[in-house]
Design brief:
Blueprint: E1 4-11, H1 15-27, E2 32-36, H2 40-51, E3 61-64, E4 73-78, H3 94-109, E5 116-119, H4 124-135, E6 142-144, H5 148-162, E7 169-170, E8 173-174, E9 182-183, E10 189-190, E11 193-194, H6 195-202, H7 208-219, H8 221-229, H9 234-248, E12 253-262, E13 268-279, E14 282-286, H10 293-311
Parallel strand pairs: 1-2, 1-4, 2-3, 4-5, 5-6
Antiparallel strand pairs: 7-10, 8-9, 10-11, 12-13, 13-14
Helix pairs in contact: 1-9, 3-4, 4-10, 5-7
């Protein structure tokens, strides 16, 4: 079956899935959006609620569906799974969410789906690796939302710190989307200006302890939000919307998505969130960006944690 590049599906209609659906409606990227959930009534209710806003949004069809509706989708987004609890690390979700992922992948591969599979459920790096292994799809068709949200948090906080529009800040959070992630300060810049040069011109100072404070705020951001409101969903919806835009518009844009490494950074049999070029066919190329010695060590530690978590999976 031919791929319909204007059709997408979201599996899981909780806070995250429904927020992503709302973001897709705002963007007008797709002409058809299918919602699936273990609770069919929930998917139907979300589709009805979203459809009420169509006269003021993009021209599209939003409906609850079944796995049979996925065959010609260009993008399937998986958000189904247990939510992170206050104080809980994302890696602690593995046991609960790998079982759910197995059943979903089994249903998808039973159809003639030829599009891109995007994992959003946590722990996203581990589940991205599992989705690739379980599906047997080529690497470019299986990605995770990775550290696109964490990177947005870095840009926002750094922009506030330096008194500049966050859209002019260029920097990455890479590694695990979780506690072992790292900020690549060595490559950070503001519209092409090295951080030190920008700070000098702006009359600002960014010391090592300032960087550590910002990093910890980014790393712990999800827990702080969960403590206050029970879940995070708007930020990840914006991040997923940005990834989807890169794919649908064939942008060849660079985003730190989660992908299975095949020798990049000297690593394999592990999925990590690293900068990659994204286009209509999904993952086009993983970029091995320059890292400082401490950053490289931190990435190796993060990879080791992901590798240990992956080796503990039971995927059969």
């Amino acid at each position: 079956m031919a791929v319909n590049y204007r059709k997408a599906a979201i599996i899981g209609c909780g806070f995250v899935g429904s927020s992503i659906a709302f973001r897709f409606l705002q963007q007008g990227l797709f002409s058809k959006l299918v919602l699936l959930d273990a609770n069919q009534a929930k998917a139907e209710g979300e589709a009805m609620d979203l459809s009420d806003g169509l006269p003021y949004g993009a021209a599209m069809e939003i409906a609850a569906g079944t796995y049979d509706d996925l065959a010609d989708c260009s993008l399937v987004v998986i958000t189904a799974g247990a939510n992170q609890k206050p104080g809980e690390a994302r890696l602690e979700l593995i046991g609960r969410n790998i079982t759910i992922l197995k059943s979903i992948i089994q249903e998808i591969t039973a159809r003639s789906f030829q599009g891109i599979l995007m994992v959003v459920s946590n722990p996203v790096d581990v589940l991205t690796y599992a989705a690739r292994e379980l599906s047997g799809y080529p690497r470019h068709r299986v990605i995770g939302s990775g550290t696109v949200l964490d990177t947005a948090r870095l840009k926002q906080l750094l922009g506030e710190e330096l008194g500049v529009d966050s859209r002019n800040v260029h920097a990455f959070i890479i590694g695990e989307h979780g506690d072992s992630e790292l900020a690549v300060w060595s490559g950070a810049n503001v519209s092409g200006l090295d951080l030190d040069d920008f700070c000098r011109l702006r009359g600002k100072t960014l010391r090592a302890d300032d960087m550590e404070r910002l990093y910890l705020e980014i790393r712990d951001s999800a827990n702080e939000i969960i403590k206050r409101k029970g879940a995070t969903y708007y930020g990840i919806a914006m991040a997923v919307g940005r990834i989807a835009e890169c794919i649908v518009k064939d942008e060849h844009a660079v985003l730190p998505v989660s992908a299975v490494l095949e020798g990049e950074y000297g690593m394999e049999k592990v999925a990590l969130s690293v900068p990659a070029i994204l286009g209509r066919d999904g993952l086009e190329k993983i970029l091995e960006i320059p890292l400082g010695p401490a950053e490289r060590q931190a990435l190796d530690r993060s990879a080791q944690q992901m590798s240990e978590a992956i080796h503990g999976l039971r995927m059969q």
